[in-house]
Amino acid sequence: MDRLVLTAVFSLLLHGAASAIDLTLRYVTTYTDGIPVRRPCFIDGDKKYAVTLDSQTELVAAEGSTLFNFTKFPRALMQLRQSPMKADVTFEPLNLPRYRAAALQLLPQGAQNPVLIAEASNVLPVNKWISQRLTFSYESGGSPMCESVLFLNLDPATQIVVQIRAGAPDFPTVTARGDDIIRRWHEVLPEAERSAN
Fold first, then answer.
1. CB-based contact 113:139 (threshold 8 Å)
2. Cα(68)–Cα(176) distance, rounded to whole angstroms?
3. What is this structure's pTM?
4. Is the dihedral of CA 180, 181, 186, 190 positive or negative?
5. Hey, which residues does 162 pair with through a beta bridge?
6. How many helices (H) and strands (E) does the chain have?
7. Which segments in the chain show pLDDT lower than 70?
């Protein structure tokens, strides 16, 4: 296990954060039929990307990342963060051990006895995205938890991580909600920010 941790740390230092997108929480106001709608957004150069939320999701900024708290589910959250890998490190079998090691490093410090329970490719097949999801079970504070680490290539040069965490019984429902939010990721066109009035 020590060798695995050293490999992961070396890989993280070697590659650094590869994504140019800023995942710091910001908001944009768009207009639909003259009605203003305030949405969370993320900046990539001169482009803005927004997501659509419901009233049961609260957002919190967290050191260059964004946390999505699902208020009906205790201990459940989704986090968008920079990836420690580069998008050009493909999800081929040869590279998967590197992704597994990186995913383990992203689990919370209190995760005890993490076990990789599932792996899946291209779980969000929208916007020509390519992805690899690794799902772990572990104990935290005496409770069984599950957490997925999704390495998501937004484009050939930009990879982010989407982590979803919940108590084991709630994990499938929380995952479905998180995936639905990410599927609604869309570019905000300049004209959408202008009111027709």
1. yes
2. 13
3. 0.86
4. positive
5. 80, 150
6. 3, 11
7. 1-19, 196-197
